[in-house]
Amino acid sequence: MPKERSINPAAAQRKADKQKEIARSKKQQQASRNEKLARRNPERLQRQIDELRELQASGALRPKDADTLLQLERDLKGVRRAKEALGVKDEPRPERRHDARDEQRERRQHLGKRRRDQEDAEDGGDTDPEVRAIPMPRDTPPPIPRDKFVDPQVGADGHRVPHSLPTKPAAPASKTVYSSAPQIRDLKREAVRFMPSVVSQQRSRIKGQGRLLEPEELDKLEKGGYAA
């Protein structure tokens, strides 16, 4: 007999819960989609389909309109299935023949209207009777009057008024000074710059700088011309 695989009860329970959650999510998505489709007007979809079929019969249907026709037919089937699933009956709606521009215009006007009666009905319960009796304007309030800005630095003639600050002092003019005094140079100090390093070290040693010299070394340096 094949060896039975050991089953982890906790893992099996998590898997079952996950499957239930997926099924519940799919069911909710389908219900939401059915509600959305059930709100659409199947009569309007049918009219659009009939108009495109007339163009198709006359041979004036464009490829783009053919794709639109297929999409409308699929939408109509989905709307009818959604209404059947929710048990919604088609109620006759007033026929309105408007083009897309009229529909957009009506939609903008509807969004731009202010429903004052509805707002008054909603806010009336929380308002005191004395405050509710105050008449409110039906139109937008007039603009708040604003004082005209007057620049204090500009006069009545439109020219700028001179300020009261003191005048800026004039910058002193730069002067060039020429001198005829002779330039004194220390040639001895300048000559030291060109002295070889070996000679400079020997001079320092004979002066006792750096380290002490033996008598033999001192005699050797004096014979070489180095004086202390």
From TrEMBL:
Task: Return the Pfam families for the record.
Answer: Wbp11 (PF09429)
Which stretches make up the Wbp11/ELF5/Saf1 N-terminal domain?
4-80
Query: Where in the sequence does UniProt note compositional bias of the Basic and acidic residues kind?
Result: 14-24, 33-46, 75-106
Gene Ontology terms: biological process: RNA processing
Q: Where is the composition biased (Acidic residues)?
A: 119-128
Question: Where is the segment annotated Disordered?
Answer: 1-46, 75-182
Q: Which InterPro entries match?
A: Wbp11/ELF5/Saf1_N (IPR019007)
Protein name in UniProt: Wbp11/ELF5/Saf1 N-terminal domain-containing protein
Q: Which organism is it from?
A: Baudoinia panamericana (strain UAMH 10762) (Angels' share fungus)
